[in-house]
Amino acid sequence: MTLKVYTSLLLLFLVNSVWTRTVRQVYDELDPEHWSHYTFECPRECFCPPSFPNALYCDNKGLKEIPAIPARIWYLYLQNNLIETVSEKPFVNATHLRWINLNKNKITNSGIESGVLSKLKRLLYLFLEDNELEEVPAPLPVGLEQLRLARNKISRIPDGVFSNLENLTMLDLHQNSLLDSALQSDTFQGLNNLMQLNIAKNSLKKMPLSIPANTLQLFLDNNSIEVIPENYFSAIPKVTFLRLNYNKLSDEGIPSNGFNVSSILDLQLSHNQLTKIPPINAHLEHLHLDHNRIKSVNGTQICPVSIAVAEDYSFYSNLPRLRYLRLDGNEIQPPIPLDIMICFRLLQAVVI
Protein backbone atom coordinates (compact mmCIF):
# COMPACT_ATOMS: atom_id res chain seq x y z
CA MET A 1 0.00 0.00 0.00
CA THR A 2 2.77 2.44 0.97
CA LEU A 3 4.64 1.66 -2.24
CA LYS A 4 1.51 2.40 -4.29
CA VAL A 5 0.99 5.72 -2.52
CA TYR A 6 4.55 6.85 -3.05
CA THR A 7 4.44 5.71 -6.68
CA SER A 8 1.35 7.87 -7.19
CA LEU A 9 3.00 10.81 -5.44
CA LEU A 10 6.06 10.47 -7.65
CA LEU A 11 3.83 10.54 -10.72
CA LEU A 12 2.07 13.68 -9.43
CA PHE A 13 5.40 15.37 -8.74
CA LEU A 14 6.54 14.67 -12.29
CA VAL A 15 3.28 16.03 -13.67
CA ASN A 16 3.56 19.21 -11.59
CA SER A 17 7.23 19.77 -12.46
CA VAL A 18 6.31 20.90 -15.95
CA TRP A 19 6.35 24.71 -15.85
CA THR A 20 5.69 27.42 -18.35
CA ARG A 21 9.02 27.41 -20.15
CA THR A 22 10.25 23.95 -19.24
CA VAL A 23 8.35 21.58 -21.45
CA ARG A 24 8.72 17.94 -22.23
CA GLN A 25 9.63 16.69 -25.71
CA VAL A 26 6.80 14.32 -26.44
CA TYR A 27 6.94 14.01 -30.20
CA ASP A 28 8.06 10.82 -31.91
CA GLU A 29 10.76 11.15 -34.56
CA LEU A 30 8.98 8.48 -36.61
CA ASP A 31 5.58 10.15 -36.39
CA PRO A 32 4.38 11.05 -39.91
CA GLU A 33 2.91 14.23 -38.37
CA HIS A 34 6.32 15.32 -37.04
CA TRP A 35 7.00 19.08 -37.18
CA SER A 36 9.64 18.69 -39.90
CA HIS A 37 6.86 17.96 -42.41
CA TYR A 38 5.62 21.53 -42.07
CA THR A 39 6.94 24.89 -43.22
CA PHE A 40 8.68 27.08 -40.66
CA GLU A 41 6.33 30.07 -40.87
CA CYS A 42 6.21 32.23 -37.75
CA PRO A 43 3.71 34.98 -36.85
CA ARG A 44 5.56 38.28 -36.91
CA GLU A 45 4.30 39.11 -33.40
CA CYS A 46 5.88 35.98 -31.92
CA PHE A 47 9.17 34.15 -31.47
CA CYS A 48 9.83 30.72 -32.95
CA PRO A 49 13.01 29.22 -31.47
CA PRO A 50 14.89 27.13 -34.08
CA SER A 51 15.95 24.72 -31.33
CA PHE A 52 12.33 24.08 -30.36
CA PRO A 53 10.39 24.26 -33.64
CA ASN A 54 7.04 23.05 -32.32
CA ALA A 55 6.80 25.87 -29.74
CA LEU A 56 5.45 29.38 -30.33
CA TYR A 57 6.22 32.20 -27.88
CA CYS A 58 3.78 35.12 -28.11
CA ASP A 59 3.93 36.13 -24.45
CA ASN A 60 4.44 39.70 -23.19
CA LYS A 61 3.73 41.24 -26.59
CA GLY A 62 0.75 43.44 -25.79
CA LEU A 63 -1.42 41.33 -28.11
CA LYS A 64 -5.16 42.01 -28.21
CA GLU A 65 -5.97 38.97 -30.30
CA ILE A 66 -4.50 35.54 -30.97
CA PRO A 67 -2.44 35.33 -34.20
CA ALA A 68 -2.85 32.49 -36.70
CA ILE A 69 -1.16 29.41 -35.21
CA PRO A 70 1.00 27.34 -37.60
CA ALA A 71 0.15 23.67 -38.04
CA ARG A 72 3.42 22.41 -36.55
CA ILE A 73 2.87 24.02 -33.12
CA TRP A 74 2.35 21.86 -30.04
CA TYR A 75 3.21 24.38 -27.31
CA LEU A 76 1.63 27.85 -27.39
CA TYR A 77 2.55 30.66 -25.00
CA LEU A 78 0.19 33.66 -24.94
CA GLN A 79 0.43 34.75 -21.31
CA ASN A 80 0.75 38.38 -20.17
CA ASN A 81 -1.12 40.00 -23.03
CA LEU A 82 -4.39 41.94 -23.47
CA ILE A 83 -6.35 39.17 -25.21
CA GLU A 84 -10.12 39.33 -24.68
CA THR A 85 -11.40 36.69 -27.08
CA VAL A 86 -10.60 33.10 -28.03
CA SER A 87 -12.08 32.40 -31.46
CA GLU A 88 -11.85 29.42 -33.77
CA LYS A 89 -10.12 31.17 -36.68
CA PRO A 90 -6.52 31.30 -35.27
CA PHE A 91 -6.66 27.55 -34.51
CA VAL A 92 -7.91 26.29 -37.88
CA ASN A 93 -4.54 24.71 -38.73
CA ALA A 94 -3.38 24.08 -35.15
CA THR A 95 -4.67 20.54 -34.85
CA HIS A 96 -1.72 19.22 -32.84
CA LEU A 97 -1.74 21.61 -29.88
CA ARG A 98 -0.86 19.96 -26.55
CA TRP A 99 -0.25 23.02 -24.37
CA ILE A 100 -1.84 26.51 -24.28
CA ASN A 101 -0.88 29.16 -21.75
CA LEU A 102 -3.36 32.08 -21.71
CA ASN A 103 -2.64 33.27 -18.18
CA LYS A 104 -2.89 36.98 -17.35
CA ASN A 105 -5.11 38.19 -20.14
CA LYS A 106 -8.60 39.73 -20.18
CA ILE A 107 -10.60 36.74 -21.34
CA THR A 108 -14.28 36.51 -20.39
CA ASN A 109 -16.71 33.65 -20.89
CA SER A 110 -18.54 35.60 -23.58
CA GLY A 111 -15.19 36.09 -25.32
CA ILE A 112 -14.68 32.33 -25.79
CA GLU A 113 -16.33 31.20 -29.00
CA SER A 114 -18.68 28.27 -28.47
CA GLY A 115 -16.93 24.93 -29.01
CA VAL A 116 -13.51 26.39 -29.77
CA LEU A 117 -11.78 24.64 -26.87
CA SER A 118 -13.41 21.24 -27.31
CA LYS A 119 -12.27 21.16 -30.96
CA LEU A 120 -8.64 21.08 -29.77
CA LYS A 121 -8.75 17.29 -29.58
CA ARG A 122 -5.12 16.76 -28.57
CA LEU A 123 -4.86 19.46 -25.94
CA LEU A 124 -3.43 18.21 -22.62
CA TYR A 125 -2.66 21.39 -20.64
CA LEU A 126 -4.88 24.49 -20.53
CA PHE A 127 -3.84 27.53 -18.48
CA LEU A 128 -6.43 30.32 -18.05
CA GLU A 129 -5.33 31.81 -14.73
CA ASP A 130 -5.69 35.53 -13.95
CA ASN A 131 -8.45 36.30 -16.44
CA GLU A 132 -12.05 37.56 -16.16
CA LEU A 133 -13.89 34.23 -16.21
CA GLU A 134 -17.10 33.98 -14.17
CA GLU A 135 -17.70 30.28 -14.75
CA VAL A 136 -15.72 27.24 -15.83
CA PRO A 137 -15.57 27.38 -19.65
CA ALA A 138 -17.41 24.63 -21.51
CA PRO A 139 -17.19 22.39 -23.38
CA LEU A 140 -13.58 21.38 -22.76
CA PRO A 141 -11.21 19.04 -24.66
CA VAL A 142 -11.84 15.48 -23.53
CA GLY A 143 -8.12 14.64 -23.34
CA LEU A 144 -7.15 17.38 -20.86
CA GLU A 145 -4.72 16.38 -18.11
CA GLN A 146 -4.36 19.75 -16.36
CA LEU A 147 -6.85 22.61 -16.10
CA ARG A 148 -5.69 25.73 -14.26
CA LEU A 149 -8.31 28.42 -13.61
CA ALA A 150 -6.92 30.15 -10.52
CA ARG A 151 -7.49 33.84 -9.78
CA ASN A 152 -10.55 34.43 -11.91
CA LYS A 153 -14.07 35.42 -10.78
CA ILE A 154 -15.59 31.96 -11.11
CA SER A 155 -18.78 31.49 -9.09
CA ARG A 156 -20.48 28.87 -11.24
CA ILE A 157 -19.55 25.42 -12.54
CA PRO A 158 -21.87 24.33 -15.39
CA ASP A 159 -23.59 20.96 -15.04
CA GLY A 160 -21.56 18.13 -16.52
CA VAL A 161 -18.59 20.28 -17.50
CA PHE A 162 -16.15 17.69 -16.11
CA SER A 163 -18.15 14.56 -16.97
CA ASN A 164 -15.96 13.50 -19.92
CA LEU A 165 -12.58 14.54 -18.54
CA GLU A 166 -11.39 11.10 -17.45
CA ASN A 167 -7.72 11.97 -18.06
CA LEU A 168 -7.69 15.09 -15.89
CA THR A 169 -5.16 14.76 -13.06
CA MET A 170 -5.05 18.38 -11.83
CA LEU A 171 -7.88 20.89 -11.36
CA ASP A 172 -6.93 24.27 -9.92
CA LEU A 173 -9.81 26.58 -8.96
CA HIS A 174 -8.15 28.47 -6.15
CA GLN A 175 -8.81 32.16 -5.48
CA ASN A 176 -12.18 32.39 -7.17
CA SER A 177 -15.70 33.17 -5.85
CA LEU A 178 -17.12 29.70 -5.30
CA LEU A 179 -19.86 29.26 -2.69
CA ASP A 180 -21.06 25.94 -1.27
CA SER A 181 -24.03 26.06 -3.66
CA ALA A 182 -21.66 25.92 -6.64
CA LEU A 183 -20.38 22.47 -5.62
CA GLN A 184 -23.16 19.93 -6.03
CA SER A 185 -22.96 16.18 -5.43
CA ASP A 186 -22.29 15.57 -9.13
CA THR A 187 -20.04 18.56 -9.87
CA PHE A 188 -16.85 16.48 -10.05
CA GLN A 189 -18.49 13.43 -11.58
CA GLY A 190 -16.32 11.88 -14.29
CA LEU A 191 -12.96 12.96 -12.86
CA ASN A 192 -11.94 9.37 -12.22
CA ASN A 193 -8.19 10.02 -12.39
CA LEU A 194 -8.00 13.36 -10.60
CA MET A 195 -5.01 13.50 -8.27
CA GLN A 196 -4.91 17.14 -7.16
CA LEU A 197 -7.91 19.39 -6.43
CA ASN A 198 -7.27 22.96 -5.32
CA ILE A 199 -10.29 24.97 -4.10
CA ALA A 200 -8.35 27.20 -1.70
CA LYS A 201 -9.22 30.89 -1.28
CA ASN A 202 -12.90 30.66 -2.14
CA SER A 203 -15.99 31.25 0.01
CA LEU A 204 -16.79 27.74 1.20
CA LYS A 205 -18.38 27.15 4.61
CA LYS A 206 -18.71 23.38 4.22
CA MET A 207 -16.49 20.57 3.02
CA PRO A 208 -17.22 20.05 -0.69
CA LEU A 209 -19.45 17.18 -1.73
CA SER A 210 -18.34 14.09 -3.65
CA ILE A 211 -14.62 14.64 -4.07
CA PRO A 212 -13.26 12.18 -6.70
CA ALA A 213 -12.24 8.94 -5.02
CA ASN A 214 -8.68 8.88 -6.37
CA THR A 215 -7.75 12.36 -5.14
CA LEU A 216 -4.33 12.45 -3.47
CA GLN A 217 -3.99 16.17 -2.75
CA LEU A 218 -6.90 18.26 -1.48
CA PHE A 219 -6.29 21.96 -0.83
CA LEU A 220 -9.03 23.90 0.99
CA ASP A 221 -7.04 26.68 2.65
CA ASN A 222 -8.46 30.15 3.19
CA ASN A 223 -12.15 29.32 3.25
CA SER A 224 -14.61 29.53 6.15
CA ILE A 225 -15.08 25.82 6.84
CA GLU A 226 -16.28 25.06 10.37
CA VAL A 227 -17.14 21.35 10.39
CA ILE A 228 -15.67 18.08 9.12
CA PRO A 229 -18.59 15.65 8.52
CA GLU A 230 -18.43 12.21 10.16
CA ASN A 231 -16.54 9.68 7.99
CA TYR A 232 -15.91 12.35 5.34
CA PHE A 233 -12.58 10.90 4.24
CA SER A 234 -13.85 7.36 3.79
CA ALA A 235 -15.07 8.46 0.35
CA ILE A 236 -11.56 9.58 -0.65
CA PRO A 237 -9.45 6.70 0.72
CA LYS A 238 -6.26 7.74 -1.11
CA VAL A 239 -6.02 11.35 0.11
CA THR A 240 -2.42 11.92 1.21
CA PHE A 241 -1.96 15.69 1.47
CA LEU A 242 -4.75 17.65 3.16
CA ARG A 243 -4.58 21.42 3.64
CA LEU A 244 -7.20 23.20 5.74
CA ASN A 245 -5.17 26.18 6.89
CA TYR A 246 -6.96 29.49 7.53
CA ASN A 247 -10.45 28.15 8.16
CA LYS A 248 -12.77 28.25 11.19
CA LEU A 249 -12.35 24.75 12.53
CA SER A 250 -12.93 24.26 16.24
CA ASP A 251 -12.72 21.19 18.48
CA GLU A 252 -16.50 20.77 18.26
CA GLY A 253 -16.39 20.76 14.46
CA ILE A 254 -14.06 17.75 14.21
CA PRO A 255 -15.42 14.21 14.84
CA SER A 256 -13.51 12.12 17.37
CA ASN A 257 -11.64 10.26 14.63
CA GLY A 258 -12.07 12.83 11.88
CA PHE A 259 -8.38 12.94 10.97
CA ASN A 260 -7.50 9.43 12.12
CA VAL A 261 -7.09 8.36 8.50
CA SER A 262 -4.31 5.98 7.51
CA SER A 263 -3.78 7.47 4.04
CA ILE A 264 -3.05 11.03 5.23
CA LEU A 265 0.68 11.70 5.47
CA ASP A 266 0.63 15.51 5.57
CA LEU A 267 -2.09 17.32 7.56
CA GLN A 268 -2.18 21.13 7.72
CA LEU A 269 -4.57 22.79 10.18
CA SER A 270 -2.75 26.06 10.81
CA HIS A 271 -4.65 29.26 11.66
CA ASN A 272 -7.86 27.68 12.92
CA GLN A 273 -9.59 27.76 16.33
CA LEU A 274 -8.46 24.48 17.87
CA THR A 275 -7.72 24.26 21.59
CA LYS A 276 -6.41 20.71 21.51
CA ILE A 277 -4.67 18.37 19.11
CA PRO A 278 -7.18 16.13 17.31
CA PRO A 279 -6.58 12.35 17.22
CA ILE A 280 -4.20 11.38 14.44
CA ASN A 281 -3.20 8.17 12.70
CA ALA A 282 0.13 6.41 13.24
CA HIS A 283 0.97 6.84 9.54
CA LEU A 284 0.89 10.65 9.67
CA GLU A 285 4.32 12.18 8.97
CA HIS A 286 3.76 15.98 8.97
CA LEU A 287 1.36 17.85 11.25
CA HIS A 288 0.87 21.65 11.11
CA LEU A 289 -1.10 23.09 14.04
CA ASP A 290 0.53 26.50 14.39
CA HIS A 291 -1.53 29.59 15.21
CA ASN A 292 -4.45 27.92 16.91
CA ARG A 293 -5.51 28.25 20.58
CA ILE A 294 -3.79 25.18 22.00
CA LYS A 295 -2.56 25.68 25.58
CA SER A 296 -0.95 22.36 26.39
CA VAL A 297 0.16 19.09 24.82
CA ASN A 298 -0.29 15.69 26.42
CA GLY A 299 1.72 13.04 24.61
CA THR A 300 -0.13 10.18 26.24
CA GLN A 301 -3.47 11.49 24.95
CA ILE A 302 -2.43 12.26 21.38
CA CYS A 303 -0.17 9.24 20.84
CA PRO A 304 -1.86 6.98 18.25
CA VAL A 305 -0.44 3.90 20.04
CA SER A 306 -0.09 3.25 23.73
CA ILE A 307 3.00 4.76 25.36
CA ALA A 308 3.94 1.26 26.53
CA VAL A 309 4.14 0.10 22.92
CA ALA A 310 6.05 3.21 21.93
CA GLU A 311 8.64 2.53 24.62
CA ASP A 312 9.17 -1.03 23.42
CA TYR A 313 11.78 -0.98 20.65
CA SER A 314 10.73 -4.47 19.53
CA PHE A 315 7.56 -2.86 18.11
CA TYR A 316 9.51 -0.48 15.86
CA SER A 317 7.41 -1.33 12.79
CA ASN A 318 4.30 -0.12 14.62
CA LEU A 319 5.77 3.16 15.84
CA PRO A 320 4.02 6.42 14.87
CA ARG A 321 5.62 7.92 11.76
CA LEU A 322 5.35 11.59 12.72
CA ARG A 323 8.54 13.43 11.67
CA TYR A 324 7.51 17.09 11.73
CA LEU A 325 5.29 18.83 14.27
CA ARG A 326 4.56 22.55 14.20
CA LEU A 327 2.90 24.13 17.24
CA ASP A 328 4.17 27.72 17.25
CA GLY A 329 1.69 30.56 17.52
CA ASN A 330 -0.31 28.76 20.23
CA GLU A 331 -0.22 29.24 24.01
CA ILE A 332 2.12 26.33 24.66
CA GLN A 333 5.17 26.95 26.80
CA PRO A 334 8.39 24.95 26.43
CA PRO A 335 9.87 22.51 27.22
CA ILE A 336 8.40 19.80 25.01
CA PRO A 337 6.79 17.11 27.18
CA LEU A 338 8.88 13.95 27.46
CA ASP A 339 5.96 11.70 26.51
CA ILE A 340 5.82 13.42 23.11
CA MET A 341 9.39 12.32 22.44
CA ILE A 342 8.70 8.82 23.77
CA CYS A 343 5.67 8.40 21.52
CA PHE A 344 7.00 10.01 18.35
CA ARG A 345 10.49 8.53 18.21
CA LEU A 346 10.94 9.43 14.55
CA LEU A 347 10.40 13.16 15.13
CA GLN A 348 13.06 15.23 13.36
CA ALA A 349 11.68 18.72 14.05
CA VAL A 350 9.29 20.28 16.56
CA VAL A 351 8.46 23.98 16.25
CA ILE A 352 6.95 25.36 19.46
Automatic annotation (TrEMBL):
The lineage of its organism: Eukaryota, Metazoa, Chordata, Craniata, Vertebrata. It is found in: Secreted, Extracellular space, Extracellular matrix. This is Keratocan. SMART domains: LRR_BAC (SM00364), LRR_TYP (SM00369), LRRNT (SM00013). It comes from Opisthocomus hoazin. Plays an important role in generating and maintaining a transparent matrix within the corneal stroma. Its main location: secreted. Residues 41-75 form the LRRNT domain. Belongs to the small leucine-rich proteoglycan (SLRP) family. SLRP class II subfamily.
